[in-house]
Amino acid sequence: MRAVIDTNVLVSALLTPGGVSARIVAAIRDTALVPVLSHAINVEYAEVLNRAKFGFAKSDVDDLLLDMNGLAVFVSPGLIEAVRLPDPSDAPFIAAALAAACPVVTGNAKHFPARLGLQPLSPSACLLELSTR
After folding, report:
1. Tens digits of per-residue pLDDT, 55-93?
2. pLDDT in tens, 84-96
3. By residue range, what is the domain housing residue 37?
């Protein structure tokens, strides 16, 4: 299964190593889940995960980013109009999901409205879907 992984899932995975989001990362590392990335998503991942307020170990962030990049399918999505989005900063994630025709795994589904043709999945719902494959 392919999916765009929202940054909040990666943050949660690093904050709570035994949590549901960490299981999403484990599924990626086990190749059960293939992340869909774009250049803009990579830029956001690196910027957010390296914020001092989180205090993540640089080695943990570097390992996660290396794994995400090494296991990903890359897309070069077109631009979408961010004006009508609940959170305009989510535009790269929406564009990638639309380009790859795949769901977005997120802890904030309201930022990914179905009216745009998106299928947001919570980390729990994603794990459930993976378990039925």
Report:
1. 999 999 999 999 999 999 999 998 777 667 888 889 999
2. 788 888 999 999 9
3. 2-131
* pTM, entire model: 0.95
User: What own/partner pairs with CB < 8 Å and gap ≥ 24 does 27-34 have?
Assistant: 27/126, 27/127, 27/130, 28/67, 28/68, 28/71, 29/67, 29/71, 31/71, 32/1, 32/130, 32/133, 33/1, 33/2, 33/3, 33/126, 33/130, 34/1, 34/2, 34/3, 34/71, 34/72, 34/73
* CATH code, 121: 3.40.50
Q: Provide the number of structural domains found in the chain.
A: 1
